[in-house]
Amino acid sequence: MFDIQQIREDFPILKRTVNGKPLVYFDNAATSQKPQVVIDALVDYYSNYNANIHRGVHTLSQEATNAYEEARKKIQVHFNAAKLYEIIFTSGTTHGINLVATGYSSLLKKGDEFIVSALEHHSNIVPWQMLCERTGATLKVIPINEHGELIFSEYEKLLSNKTKLVFVNHISNTLGTINPIKEIIDKAHAVGANVLIDGAQACPHLKPDIQQLDVDFYVGSAHKMCGPTGIGFLYGKEELLNLLPPYQGGGEMIKEVTFEKTTYADLPHKFEAGTPNIADAIAFGVAIDYLNELGFENIASYENELLQYATKKLLNIDGLKIYGTSKNKTSVISFNIENIHPYDIGAIIDKLGVAVRTGHHCTQPIMDFYKIPGTVRASFAFYNTKEEIDIFVEALKKAKIMLS
Ligand code: 7TS
User: Fold this and answer.
1) Would you call 375 helix, strand, or coil by DSSP?
2) Residue nearest atom 5 in ligand 1 by C-alpha distance
3) Global pTM value
4) Per-residue confidence (pLDDT) for residue 56, from 0 to 100
């Protein structure tokens, strides 16, 4: 196992205090903290080889181009994509989904259907609704049970030869449910449909194998994986990416431009118009190296220990109810305490140094399902500790007394 105190030394922010108390950061599902190596990579780029890429013959430009393309390679290897050019840099998960959703408008025919799950983040709902409005396609929803698990038999009923694309998250950001994506993908393929997996919450906790999953599109954000904000990736199968039109027009994404006709660059450049986010892409590669050095099996097993420990302690608090009780879940706990608004809990425990998210977590359909306005959400990362969970539980008890 890894040395947790040593790991915490890698994260400068964990040394700070909030409202005079040591920071307890349990909002990792919103964004993760950054290790020094990632911060250093950004400073190194801007201090030593900042240049625009793919266009200069000069040394700096070549160094920056090499580092940017090396980062793409790291992502390809990490996720086991078959081809380097199947990895497209995006600004994050939201961008990746919008790129695919916008592109699909040119591939649809009358009567086409999409299948979405009731567990999705708004960013995997709204772009598709916008697409349906533009094209007349319809959206079908896989329902969930009380545990916050997809009802697979209902999914099977929704599938038909009209199904064009299924889009589901790998892990729910609100409930932590790990979805059976391999089974979802196989069933969709059996009727000729494609699948997009929103991996925003999965990538920090596990290592998806794109070829083994045979997934058609997979998207994620670096900032949830100890990398910087403003960078993410879209994986797409070559033949599908070739079918999609470019998302944005501009420099770098063309082969030839005349006023009569423009032809587009090959993958991946067709989808990377303009000067990309060079520094953050490079630092994303460094974050992936960092996580792999720790090892995803170590990360998952330690985070599961934290999850079990916290779940047990929280359930000892009278009137506390946890939403999302699937056996197959990651280190996210959403809960409410009877008769107390989640926001009030969040505000009081912040005074005690504890950072959690409160509200609907951009998943209003989940809140509607449970008939609640929101939850308190604590999400743990591998740099959190059981001692921090103890502080959190004591803070909750204090909040409960103050608010009852
Ligand atoms: N999909 C899922 C499952 C997410 O959890 C998020 C962000 C997104 C998509 C969007 O990612 P972005 O990087 O493009 O913003 N989730 C959260 C959250 O749970 N709290 O803050 C952001």
Assistant:
1) strand
2) 173
3) 0.98
4) 78
